[in-house]
Hints:
Radius of gyration: 28 Å
Shape: rod-shaped
Number of strands: 0
Number of helices: 7
Strand content: under 5%
Helix content: over 70%
Distance between the termini: 26 Å
Structural class: mainly alpha
Largest sheet: none
Amino acid sequence: MEPPVSPVLFSIVLFLGMLILLETGRRLGVRRRPKESEGERGSLGAVEGAVFALFGLLMAFTFSGAASRFHEKRMLIAEEANTIETAYLRLDLVPQAEPKLQQLFRQYVDSRLETYRRLPNMTAARLEMANSKRIQGEIWTEAVAATRISGVHPAAGWLLLPALNNMIDITTTRTMALQQHPPRIIYALLFALGLIALFWQVTGCRLGSIVVGCTSLVSA
Length: 220
């Protein structure tokens, strides 16, 4: 659930690196300019364009992936709400145990909401997840016992228990969805290309070998 790189640390290091490379590139550029011919300066445009194009492409893919993951998590919220509602409605099939199960359902919903309120405090969120698991076990035990009571609807076990199973399974799906983040190599490439693009813009140095190396990493 926690991102592989702290956003605050990433931003601070990137900002400091940009300042350092900005000053370094300015000094190198001042030294190189008098020694370059007009032809050499003109030939740098293609490589410079490739660096910025690669950086822009990587940024676009990163934001596109983030939007997809955000949309997926929103859909999972609706799916979990639907599974809980379906299971709750099917409690009418076991009227003898319905009041107790309804109370457990209220506790369960409160626990699930509290889990996501506690994020990004992972320690507190995990404690509440354990509480949700405990309530799930109580609901399942009570539901199984209720379906065996004489006089309940004949289809109570066939309809209620699968709905409860879906309600329990979706919690694992949502937990796994929270752990999806871009690969660490993406953070490294964004960091490196951001610094390279700034350094190139100031100095105009020939970084063709670096560009080729970054391109091969992205392709892999």
